[in-house]
From TrEMBL:
This is NADP-dependent oxidoreductase domain-containing protein. It comes from the Bacteria. It holds the Pfam family Aldo_ket_red. InterPro entries: AKR, NAD(P)_OxRdtase_dom_sf, NADP_OxRdtase_dom. Residues 1-20 are annotated as: Disordered. SUPFAM superfamilies: NAD(P)-linked oxidoreductase (SSF51430). Residues 27-222 form the NADP-dependent oxidoreductase domain.
Amino acid sequence: MRSDAGTVPGQRSEDDHGPHGPMACRLGFGCASLFRLRGRRERLRLLACAYDNGIEHFDTAPMYGLGASERELGAFASGPRGNVTLLTKFGRSVAPLGRAARPLQAPLGRRVTAALDTIAREGVVRRVNAALYRPPDYGVAAARGSLEASCRRLGRDRIDILAVHDPPPGVLPPDDLPGWLDEACASGRVGAWGLAGHHSTAVAWGHHLDRPLPVLQYQSDYRSAPVAGMADSYITYGFLRGQLARIRSLLDTRPDLCEHWSGRLQMSLAGDGLADALLEHELAKNVGGVVLIASSREQRIVRAATVAHRHAQQRPAERIRRAAILTDFATACRLASG
């Protein structure tokens, strides 16, 4: 999904040609949880599974993997895979304690994640994050230093998409940051810049800049309305985050609802079929944009890619028809679950 001159990386129509040929899927792979896998060979095999199934967009950040994600992704995305799109971010980085803890994350892997999930009270998470990560810094000097470091770790002289990483509510860009980012794009060092954060933050940044953002990456799920007018290109993530169990519980207690929507969608909503429907809904909602997935299981990546390829191969009229049904399904779930 590397863009040609004059286009924004990450935005494509269903019939664009990429490294995998026509209609390569619009999925991206998020590397935030890559180090849940203990071995480097396992992690590289997972990235290869994504690429081999048509995924050409990979999302990372300096803080992912306590600073190790970019280097590992860069080693993967070299040679014949050098044509993929890489998005990285700036503004949030790893503290010295986080760097010291880096060697422990792969051996401990899922056990640490499970333990944190078990004790994930807001205060605990905040204290852990304060120890592992530096306070956010969105100044030009920090952005310049982060870009140079990311290029070294990724083994590239150019970053396809450079995103401001999750600015807190109420934090607006320093006055000289947008101009510096525009210059980085004009010089060819960056393909496009954007914001990875809440869409309400994007509204505030857009008003401040008096123009749409080039790229907006934000969380979206079945309860979210489509976002329009805030950016030239959209990347969404988190369509399953905390929602799959909620809807599964609803359908288990309302078999009539499950049977009705399985019939209308012409697919079983039992088992993995529900996740397939939610992914197809997000693809239909984020027209032409990238939908990020994240998994440490190859079979889930293959299944998601199959859904995305099937969606891309639909005729326009069928795509519109199914989008309407999927929207009705999402509305029904939202109303039934309160």
